[in-house]
Amino acid sequence: MTDTDLIVPVEVHALLATRAVNEYDDFRRWAPKYPWTFDKEHRHNAEPSIQHSDGNPGEGIHVQWQLPEALATGAIDPATGVSTFPLVPNRWLVIRYAQVRGELKAAGFLVHSDYLEKADGGPANSAFTPFVDPRSPKEAPRADYIGRAHPLADGPWQEPPARPLFLTAIGSGLPAFAAFAPYHEDVFLFHDTLADLKGNDNYPPPCAVSYCVIGWYSDDDADILHTARNIEGLLPPDAGPDSPADVLRALGWAAPEDMPDTLTRTRYVGTALGIPWNREGGHPDDPDRPAGREVKVAIGHSTADAVAALVARQTPGDRLANQVRALFHGNPDQLDDPDWLSTLDEITRRSWFSGHDGGATWQVVNRPSEQVDAQAPPPEQPAWITTLNREQDAYDQAKAQLASARWRLWRVWWLRHLPDNRRPLDFEFDERAWDQEIGEAGSKVAELATEVQRLSGLVPHGLTPEETQREIDRYAQDRDLSHELELKRTPRQSYHRPADPVLALTSTNASRGITQPLTRDEDDPLPCRLPSRLLNRANINGTWVPAPDSPLLPDNTPEIPGIVHAVVAEFALLDQAVRTPATNGTDTALHTIVADRCAHAEGPWPEYTRVWHQPWLPLYLQWEIKHCATPYQSSQEDAPHWEFDGDRYRWNGEGAASGAGEGGRRWTAFGGRAFLTPSLRYVLREQARRLAEHAPSELAGQLRTARQELDDLDVLSQSLDGFHDWLVQQDGAAQAVTDHSVLSLAGETNHVPDGAEGHGAQRFQPVRASQFYFIELVIIDRFGRALSLVKPNQTEPIQFPLLRADSVVPDAGLFPDPPGPQRFVQLPPRLVQPARVRLETVPLRSDQPPAPAPQATGPGQLPGADAPVAGWLLVNHLDRTLLVYGPDGEPLGELRVVRDTHNTPTTAWNALPHAPYSHPRDDDFAAAYPHVAAFACGLLPNGPLGHGPEAFEALSKTIDTALDHILEPAPDEDRSPARLIGRPVALIRTRLNLDLLGEPLTDPSWRSALKTQPDEDCSEYRWTVRLGDPDRLTDGLIGYFAADDHDQPTRYDRLHAVDPDGPSNNYVTAISTDTGVHLTLPVRPADRPATHHLTLLACPHTAVHATTDILPVSDVAVDADTTHRALTRIRASFRLNPLLAPDRFGPPAATASTKAKPGHPASAMTDGDPTTSYESSEPPAAGDWACLDLHTERQVEAIDLLLGRPDGTHTPQATDLEASTDGEQWTLLVSSGQVTEIHHVPDAPLTARYLRLRHTAPADEPFAVREFTALAEPPDSSLVMPRPAAWHGNWTWAEPIAVDGTATGLPLPDWDEHLIYNADQLSHPDAPLPIARSGYLQLQPANPGQTPSTPASAASPALEGPPS
After folding, report:
1. How far is the C-alpha of 991 from the C-alpha of 996, rounded, in Å?
2. How far apart are CA 817 and CA 1355, in angstroms?
3. Cis peptide, bond prior to residue 1307, ω within 30 of zero
4. Checking DSSP bridges between strand 495-498 and strand 353-356, what pairing results, if any?
5. 942-974: string of b/e by CB count within 10 Å (b at 16+)?
6. Could you give the count of Cα atoms lying within 13 Å of 1270 in the half-sphere of its Cβ?
7. At what angle do helices 319-329 and 340-350 cross, to 10 degrees?
C-alpha cells in the first residue's frame, strides 16, 4: 500500500468527573464573556475577574486532546514582527470503547470544531463555547458560539458546505484557547456524559472506558504540509516548501523510517486508555497532584531571584544558588573570575527590569581593513554627522511623545464613553469638557504623528536589519562618504521598567510534581508514523496478540481515507491490553508493555501511549494580595523615606499609608491570573546546551551532565502579571478592542485606564514603593482543578510560609509586632514608567567649559576633538611628578612640588618639551585645553581653585592606591612606552542624565483624567547615583570632578574619590553616602534632561559603573581605538638635572612661512609619524614655503615628502623642491604639480644645509605636510651618553633653549632635541667638550613597522626666523 497520510501523535488527557470529584475537588472555571467587551453598555474584559467561577464540570469524562506544539506556536515574520499561527485540524472523530457488564461496546462522536452557531445559521443552543465571528468586521466584532459534537448513533455525519478554514490554537485571540478546557469544549474537548450507556439505569453503570481520537482537516489544501510555505518565519531559508521532510524538520517532527514521497496530508491520533468510570466509586487516585502543604513558594524580583531563594533554603551555603543564577543568565564560566559575585549580581539585577528601545546615535568610522597592522586614526567627523544625530534625537523623542499623547487620547476617550454606572456616584460629568479634551488630544496626536513622519524621512531606518543597512548605505552614498569609511549606527542605552514580581513554586514530594514539559527537546522530535506501519502485535501476559483484522467500529463511522481501519485496530489491541490484568495482579498488561515496549510490542510505538490516571496539568496561577504603599517621598518638601546606602534603597519605617486596615494602615486588594510555565527548566537546559557547544572540554562535560540532571527539576515560575499596571491604574489584562472611530489616532492598545469608579480605589503610584502579602494563591490546571496554597480566611495568609529572596525582605515593619512577619514582601522604590541611566562620553568638540572658565573655542580644532578624553595623566615616581598630556597624547606639562623663595613647599607647573602652550593659567592654554587647564589650576596655589602641596600628594597617592585595585582586562596588550613610568589614567568627559521615556505619567482616574499635569510631579524627586565600585576590580573609576548641582559647569576644586589616600586635605574627598557627596538627579523626559557634567579620572581600559538601584547598573568606557592611539603617542619624560654630556648636530628643524593651524605645528613634519601633520591656517600664496634646517652643511642622499591629508585634500597646487647651503641662494631640485608624495634621490649626494618646498602657484585651501625628511651624512646631531635600552621605542634628550622661565605670562621655550648615541671607550679628540645640561630624557614610541633600535627623527620646534 502506498501511504499518502502521515500520522502525527497527539496527547489525550481525560478528566474523570465522578460525584466525589465534583464534591471534594475545588474547581475554578470560567468562559470568556465577549458580549461584555463588545457591548458599549458594559465594556468589560472578556475574561471574568478572579472572583468569578462558572462552577464544576458536568459529570462524566472530559476528553481533551492537546495540539502538537508546532500547531500551537506562532511563527514570527522577521520583517513585520507579526505572529502567524497555523490552521489546525477542524474535524475530530472520538471513538469510545466501554466494557459494560462484560460486554464491549463502541460509540463514536464527530466533533465539528469550527462550527459557528450564528454565522453558520445553526439552531439556538447548538453550541455553547463563546467565540468571535472571524468574518465580522474588525471595527464591529460579533460574538458567537463555536463547536458541536455529533453522536454517530444519531445518524451518519453530513459534511457541511465548504468554506474557508479559520481555526487556530489561539481561537479569537486567547493564548489559552487550546489549553484551558472551558475555552474549547466541543472544539478540542469532548464531554462524554456516558448517557448512552445508562440503559434502564438512572446513571451510567460502572465500566472500563478507553478513547481513540482522530483529527484531520476538512480541506486538504489547508493541511500544514501545504500551508507551511505561506507562513513567514516558519520554514528556514534552506528548506524546500515542496519537501515533506524539510517541512517536518521545521515543525520539530521526526519523519518515519523510509518515508515515501507520496505524502499529501496529516492525520492526528491519540488515545486515553483504561479509565475506570464509577459514579459512586469515590475519588479516583490522584498520583500527580501534590497537597497544598507540599508546595513551597518563593518570591523575588525575577525568576532567577526567586529560584535562588528556593535553592538557598534547601541547600547549605549559597554556592548552588549562585550556580543556578549564573546558568540561568548564561555565564557560569564567570564564577571563577575575580569579580564573579559583582558581575552575577549586576546581571541578576538587570533581569529585574524589562528593556525598551533607547534610540540610536551615529558616527563615521573606518571601514574594517583586511590588513591587521593598518591602524588608521579615527576619522574626523563630518559636519553632517552633528545634524544627523540631532535629527535622530528629535525622532526618538518625538516617537516617545507620540506614544504618550496616544495613551492620553485613548484613556480620555475610554472613560468618556463608559456607561454612567462606571462613574463614581458623586462625579459631575461635563460632557462638553470631555469632548473638548478628546478633540485637543486628537489634534496633538495628529501633530506629533506628522512630525514623526517628517523626522523618519531624515534618518536611515528600516523594518529589518537588512533594510536598515541598505538605508544607511544609501544615506552615506548621498553624502559622498569615502569608500574607506562607513556610517555606523550605535544603539543608545535602553530604557527600563521594573518587571513584575515573580513566584517560583516546587513540590517537596518527589512523586507528586507540579510541572509538565514546556516543549519537546529538539533532540527528541515528535515521532510520526505511517498507516501501513503501526503497532501490529503485543505480548499480553506472555501471549503475542496481533492487532485485529476487523476491529469493533461504532455505527456510522465515517471513512477517513487510509487510516480508520488501521488506527482503530491498533487502538483495539491497546484497549485489550489495558483491560487484561497483569500476572502480578496489581497492574494491567498494558503497564507491563509500556514499561518495556521493545520486549513486549512489535511495530512503531505510538507516542504518549500509557495507562490513564487522573491528570494534573498546572496552567494558571491565580493570586490576590493586600498592598500598602510606603512612598519614596510624601511630598517634594519632605525628606525621602527611603535612604540609598550606595547599593540599594532601604526603608526607614516612615511614611506608610495610614488607614482603617490591619495595623492602622491603608490596604488595597489586587489580584490576577497568569500562565504557569516550567520555563526555568527549559531555559537552564537550553543554556547548558548552548554553552557546552563552545566551552572547553572540562566545562562542556559539566554542562552536559547538568543538562541531564535538569530533566528532573520540578519548578514552576510566573510573574504577577499586571502588578505595575495596577499601580498606575491601568488594566493591562483587558482585551478591549480599540474603537474604530479613534483607532487611526490612538492606535492599537492592549490596556485601558482604570477610572477607580464606585469603590474609590485610588492608588496611582508612578513611583513604586510598598509592602504586600498574599491573601489567596491558587494553582489551576487545564481542566480548572484548583490547588489552594493560601485561602482568604483569617489565619492562612498570616501563616503562609513564603520564602523571600533577600531583595524583597522588608527593612522595617509596617506596624509594631505584626503577626506572621514572614508573609510580607517589600518592593523598593522603582519608576513604573520606563527610564534609563544615561551615562555617556562627550566629544570635546561639543563639550561645555569648566567653572570658572571662558567659553572655549579651541578643542574643536585640536587632535582628539572627536574623542571624550580631555587629557592623560602619568604619575612619575622617579621624579615625584604628575605628567600631563593632551587628548591625543601631545605633551603639555608636569606638576611637581617644589620649594619657593621662602623655602615653602608649593605645587608648580613646568611645560614639557614641545608643549604647545606655556602655563594652564594662560588664556591660550585654557582656550585650547579648558578642562586640563582647570584641573591643573585646581592643584596650583594662589588661584580661585588652588590648593596646597598636600592636595598634590593626596592625588598622587589616591591614583596609586586605586590602580592597585583596578584589574585591567588585558594588560599585556598595552605596549605603550608610558607603562615604563606607570599606568596612564584619563580625564574623561561625560554627562549623566536620568531620562524618562515620554512625558511623566498622570493619574487616569475619573477625578484626575482631564488634568494635563500630575498632582505630584515625581519627576522632580531626587535620586542618588553612585559612580564607581570600590569592591569591583573591573571598575576603572579613581574619582570624578562634578558641579555643585546638575546643569552647572564642572568644578575642579574637589576630587570625589572611590578610595582616597594621602595626607589630610580638602581636595580629595571620599564618595560616601555618609558625607552626602553622591550625585543626585531628578528623572526628566529626554528632551529636557537634568544633566551632571562630569570629568572622570579613570583607568582608560576599564569601564566605570553607575549604580542607582532604581534602574540597572549602567557603565561607560573609552573607545579602545581612542585609548590605543593616544597612548602610543605619549612620550615618557624623565627630568635630569644636571647631565654632563657632549653633543654633535641637532635634528632637522622644520619651519614654514604660513602660520600653523592649532594642533598642527611645523614640528609635525619631522616627528616621524605620518598620521600627524603641519597644516597651514590659510591657503598659501605663490612664494610661501616649508623648510628643513639640517643645522650644518651635510651630504644629502635622499629627500621624501608626504603632502596633504590622508584623504587627498589640502595638497599644494604646484611646488619646487630646492636646496641651499646658506639660506640665500637656492638650487632647484625638482618641480611638481598637485601630488601627494615627492621622493627625490639625486644622482650624487648634494651639499646642503637647507631644504625648501616652495609654492609656485596659489592654492584654494590650506596645505598640509605630513612628513619632510632627508637622508644625510653625517647623521643628525646626538648626545653622547650611555643609551637606555630601546625595547619600547627610541630615546632622545630634550633641553630648553634658554629663556627667562615658564611661569604664567612668560614666553614658551623652544627645545633642542638630540638623538642619543651610545658612549664608547674610544678616543674622540675632535668631539666637543661635555657641558652640564638640564632637560628631559624622553622615550619616543616606535612607529608601526619600525624597530625600536632604529633611531627615529625627533620633533623639533620652529626656528625663530625663516630662511629668506
Report:
1. 16
2. 78
3. no
4. antiparallel
5. eeebbbbbbbbbbbbbbbbbbbeebbbeeeeeb
6. 32
7. 60
Asked which of 47-61, 481-495, 799-813 is least confident by mean pLDDT, the reply is 47-61
Task: Please give the CATH number for the structural domain made up of 1144-1341.
Answer: 2.60.120.260
Strands 1174-1175 and 1264-1273: antiparallel
b/e 1079-1089 (16+ beta carbons within 10 angstroms → b): bbbbbbbbbeb
Question: Which among 604, 607, 582 is positioned nearest to 593, based on CA atoms?
Answer: 582
Q: CB under 8 Å to 332, separation ≥6 — which residues?
A: 323, 326, 691, 699, 703
- What b/e readout covers 895-931, taking b as 16+ CB neighbours within 10 angstroms? bbbeeeeeeeebbbbbbbbbbbbbbbbbeebbbbbbb
Structure confidence by residue, pLDDT tens digits, 109-155: 999 999 999 999 999 999 999 999 999 987 788 999 999 999 999 99
Ramachandran quadrant class, 293 (left: phi over 0; alpha: psi -120 to 50; beta: rest)? alpha
> What are 1185-1194's pLDDT values in tens digits?
999 998 778 8
Residues 1105-1131: b if buried by 16+ CB within 10 A, e if exposed: bbbbbbbbbbbbbbbeebbbbbbbbbb
Contact 727, 772 (CB under 8 A): no
What is the arithmetic mean of pLDDT over 773-801?
Answer: 91
Place of cell 486532546: 65
What is the Cα 777 distance to its own chain's centre? 32
DSSP 237-255: TT--TT-HHHHHHHHTEEP
Closest CA to 612 of 596, 630, 590: 590
Burial tier of 482 (Cβ tally within 10 Å: 0-12, 13-18, 19+): middle
Give backbone dihedrals phi and psi of 648, rounded to 5 degrees, phi first. Answer: -150, 165
pLDDT attached to residue 886: 93
User: Pairing relation of β-strands 83-84 and 75-76?
Assistant: antiparallel
CA distances from 132 to 161, 471, 670, 1356 (A): 21, 41, 29, 85
Quick one: how far is CA 1289 from the chain centroid?
Answer: 43
Q: In angstroms, what CA-CA distances link 230 with 70, 84, 164, 800, 952?
A: 15, 10, 15, 52, 72
One DSSP character per residue, 649-664 reads: EEE-S--PPB-SSGGG
- CA–CA gap between residue 996 and residue 1086 (Å, rounded): 6
Residues 1293 and 1312: their CA atoms lie apart, in Å, by 8
The SS3 call for residue 320 is: helix
Within 10 angstroms of residue 1330's Cβ, the number of other Cβ atoms is: 14
Please state the length of the chain. 1364
| pLDDT computed for residue 1302 by the predictor | 47
Torsion, Cα of 654, 656, 658, 662 (10° steps): -110
Q: Please give the residue that has the higher pLDDT: either 1317 or 549.
A: 549
pTM assigned to the model: 0.82
Q: What is the pLDDT of residue 211?
A: 98
What does the mean pLDDT of the chain come to? 86
Rounded to an integer, what distance in angstroms lies between the CA atom of residue 281 and that of residue 1041? 80
Cell 489561539, residue located: 170
* Matching residue, cell 592649532: 1158
**By C-alpha distance, which of 982, 780, 777 is closest to 874?**
982
Show Cβ contacts of residue 268 under 8 Å, excluding neighbours closer than 6 positions: 7, 8, 9, 10, 65, 68, 89, 213, 214, 215, 216
SS3 719: strand
State yes or no: pLDDT of 720 exceeds 60: yes
Domain residue ranges of the chain, discontinuous segments joined by +: 5-284+530-602, 360-367+379-492, 618-728+765-832, 838-1127, 1144-1341
Contact 1040, 1095 (CB under 8 A): yes
Collapsing DSSP states into helix, strand and coil, what is residue 112? Answer: strand
Q: Cell 501511504: give the residue.
A: 3
